Each structure stands twice: as C-alpha cells, then as structure tokens.
Amino acid sequence: MGFYDRHVVPRFVNCACATKPIMKQREKVVPHASGIVLEIGIGTGLNLPYYDANKVKRVIGLDPSEKSWELAGERASQLAFPVEFIGLPSEQIPLDDDSVDTVVVTFSLCTIPEPVAALRGMKRVLRTGGNLIFCEHGRAPDEKVCRWQNRINPLWKRLAGGCNLNRDIPHLLTSGGFAVSDIEADYLPGTPRFAGYNYWGSARPAEFVS
User: Fold this and answer.
1) What's the Cα-to-Cα distance from 174 to each of 73, 100, 109, rounded to whole Å?
2) What is the C-alpha to C-alpha distance for residues 92 and 111, in angstroms, rounded to an integer?
C-alpha cells in the first residue's frame, strides 16, 4: 500500500463521507443497532456518535486501514460504550460464528473487493434473529445516470480507494444470503446524481425469515 492509499485516501474518504446529506443518512440507520455490534468498514468512526448507548453493549469496528483506526479512536474516546478495533488479516471476518447481534455497514459495500463473500461472512457472525443495518450508494435506476456511472467508475475507483459507483446493492444483499425486510432508495439532495443514489434499510439471514 503506497503513500496515497495510506495517508491521502483515509482523509479524502473522511471528508467525502462527512457531508451533511450523508451524515443525515447515518443518523437515520445507525440508532437501530443494538447489542454487540459489528461495524464493517468503520473507517474514521463517522457512525459512532449515532449509536444509542442505551441499546448498544459494544461496537467492534472492522477496517483494514490503520490510519483510519487512528482517526476513529479519537471519536471513540468520549463514548459511553466500549469500541474495539480489529483489522482484516484475510477474507475471513476474525470473529466466531453467531457472535454479534447487529451488523452495520454504511458506505462500505462499494469498496469491498468481494462484496458477496463479505456479506456471507457477515451472515456467519450474526446470531439467530440478528439484523444487518445498511446504507449504501449504488447503481441508479435511471438509464442515463447509470451510463454515466459506468463511464466514470474506472477513474473514480482509482482515485477513491476502490469505491465503485455502480454496484447493485439489493442484488448483492440477496446474493450474500440476506432477505431484505426493509429498504428505501432515493437520490440524496445536494449530491451529484452519479454518486448520490442511496439504498438504506435492514435485512436478516434468509433462512430466518418466515
């Protein structure tokens, strides 16, 4: 990993993901988390202020970037619940089966190299009855916008640390073994349309949905 990926990308992502429309999205979904929480791609900890301390026992933040951990640690130091940071030594999430109550993934499925495999790992660590809380940008429904996403994506991906503009989020969730129980989608105001189509809601492992 070069200087750009180690030092520039974490700060760029922190700024891009801290805009007012995106923070509003975080505020909508993160308070639904409860129990022991695994946050995928915790990054610089932008979600941390939105967890409900009356519902959350502990947050385990998974992220491959040590620089992001440093920035997240500053935000975690003032919280009323413990936050543990763990790395990603392999494709396998380093937690036991059935060990967390909630998985939170926000603006991270766009970047994970193998998102379906990652979602299957999230499903593995969720306890029976657990929830996946998600908020992600992805493929727009409008053909013209989608064409622009496809054109821009190769350059965008290189500049934005592997972020993809055009992933089909609902399809990824079902391919990863989840049944989407609640989903909303729309363009976020104040964001460019090619990067501003958002999906948010909750899902459960498919075999636990009647």
Assistant:
1) 33, 20, 13
2) 16
Read off the pLDDT of residues 157-206 as tens digits, 9 standing for 90 and up.
Answer: 988 888 999 999 999 999 999 999 899 999 999 899 999 999 999 999 99
Burial class (CB within 10 angstroms; exposed 0-12, middle 13-18, buried 19+) of 146: middle
Rounded CA-CA distance 81/142 in Å is 42
pTM of the model: 0.89
> Based on the number of CB atoms within 10 Å of its own CB, is 97 exposed (0-12), middle (13-18) or buried (19 or more)?
exposed
**Cα 149 to chain centroid, rounded:** 20
| Closest by CA position to 33, among listed 99, 98, 101 | 101
d(CA 60, CA 101): 11
What DSSP assignment string belongs to 60-95?
Answer: EEE-S-HHHHHHHHHHHTT-SS-EEEE---SSS-SS
C-alpha–C-alpha distance, residues 24 and 210, integer Å = 32
Q: What confidence tens digit (pLDDT) does each residue in 111-131 have?
A: 999 999 999 999 999 999 999
CA dihedral 64, 66, 68, 73 (to 10 degrees): 120
Q: What does the chain come to in residues?
A: 210
Secondary structure letter of residue 50 according to DSSP:
G
The CATH code for residues 3-208 is: 3.40.50.150
